[in-house]
Amino acid sequence: MKGETISKEFQKMVWVRDKNGKEYACYIDDLKSIKKKEDLTEEEKAKCTDLSLVLGDSW
Fold first, then answer.
1. pTM for this entry
2. Cα 17 from Cα 27, distance rounded (Å)
3. Max CA-CA distance within the chain?
4. Contact by Cβ (8 Å): 44, 54
5. Are 28 and 58 spatial neighbours (Cβ–Cβ below 8 Å)?
6. In which element (H, E) is residue 4 found?
7. Count of C-beta atoms within a 10 Å radius of residue 16
8. Is residue 55 pLDDT above 70, yes or no?
9. Which residue among 7, 8, 22, 47 is buried most deeply as judged by most CB within 10 Å?
10. Residue 55: is it exposed, middle or buried by C-beta count within 10 angstroms (0-12/13-18/19+)?
11. What is the pLDDT of residues 10-53, one digit of tens each?
12. What is the strand order of the sheet 49-50 is part of?
């Protein structure tokens, strides 16, 4: 059951690289207004997880 729940949540996510090359894991529902990944706003970034904080700068 736990793996099934994680899988469902994972399917709701997208990975976005902003115009500066930073990569974020975001829920697609939090990015409804985004048209291009380069347009990721600071407000949208705040709803996402900055992967460099999780995986380190070398990621």
1. 0.70
2. 14
3. 38
4. no
5. no
6. helix 2-10
7. 20
8. yes
9. 22
10. exposed
11. 888 988 888 888 888 999 888 876 666 667 888 888 889 988 88
12. 13-17, 23-27, 49-50
